[in-house]
């Protein structure tokens, strides 16, 4: 088998010393190009493979970064992982991915596995804004929190500016004529669940809307569907529903359709995250799109700096999202306010 081929055999086949063969394969030391070519050709012919564990022990680096997410099945996290992996590949690192399933015990176990595998650094999307902190703080490698944050962990963090995102959504539905609206989001378990709700609550007081009681559950399709049932059960529907994630919006729109509500004729709906499915959903979902590539780049930049010994104060990078307007807020016969005979102008802030 190829793994049975030793470095000594490669050196012998190439006619060089063991030390020279090692330097030639590692690309270190003063070895002529001709010798490097000879050694590598011998290694290829014999089927020799470098032992990554032995190399890591010698170099003091595995060239592996661990990443833990709460739900890999969430399309946004899949999109984020893809951006991270591409960026790490450009930097010469491999990605070791783990799914915590949103469970604290599993999250702590996965972080311990990263330590056992001697990863060089960790990118973490915490499952809980309060209780994930101790496990992150106890990690044996530098940690950067991505998308979400958890208290009690003095680590760098990179995410989206939820305040800007909510303002974009609210101003958009206001421009479309909405004057009554409801917020449908997630509860207080995650930092994004809190920040997006607080952003909505703080902005709504300064804008010409009548806000109906919010509905808060989880970042899931099922939660959006349950919210639609509750909205219909209340009676009069709002002009617009601003949601805290695309998944929530998908569930909401699909269930409202079952109740006979037509989007956007009867209600305008916005999402948050900007996952690819939002474009092919029917109607196309207007959404606050996160700059995923930029988030990945900043997170990896912070992590590489810490891995190289940077001991500067903890940093948090909040990147501005953009609004992608699609069919869920675009009516053929004009803004919803016009159709219902409402008027009013949005106050400038």
Q: What can be said about this structure in brief?
A:
GO terms for molecular function: DNA binding. With 349 residues, this protein is an alpha/beta fold. It folds into 3 domains: 2-50, Orthogonal Bundle (434 Repressor (Amino-terminal Domain)), CATH 1.10.260; 64-160 and 292-319, 3-Layer(aba) Sandwich (Rossmann fold), CATH 3.40.50; 162-290 and 323-339, Response regulator (Rossmann fold, 3-Layer(aba) Sandwich), CATH 3.40.50.2300.
Task: Describe the protein.
The chain has 349 residues and is α/β, with parallel strands linked by helices. The chain has 14 helices and 13 strands. Strands 6, 7, 8, 9, 10, 11 and 13 form a 7-stranded mixed beta sheet that branches. Helix 1 (7-14) crosses helix 2 (18-26), helix 5 packs across helix 13 (292-307) and helix 8 packs across helix 9 (191-204).
Q: Given the C-alpha coordinates, what overall shape results?
A: elongated
- Main sheet overview: 7 strands, mixed
What is the chain-wise order of helices and strands?
Answer: HHHHEHEHEHEEHEHEEHEHEHEHEEH
- The CATH topology annotation of the largest domain reads as Rossmann fold
Keywords: DNA-binding, Transcription, Transcription regulation
GO molecular function: DNA binding
Pfam family, one: LacI
Protein name: LacI family DNA-binding transcriptional regulator
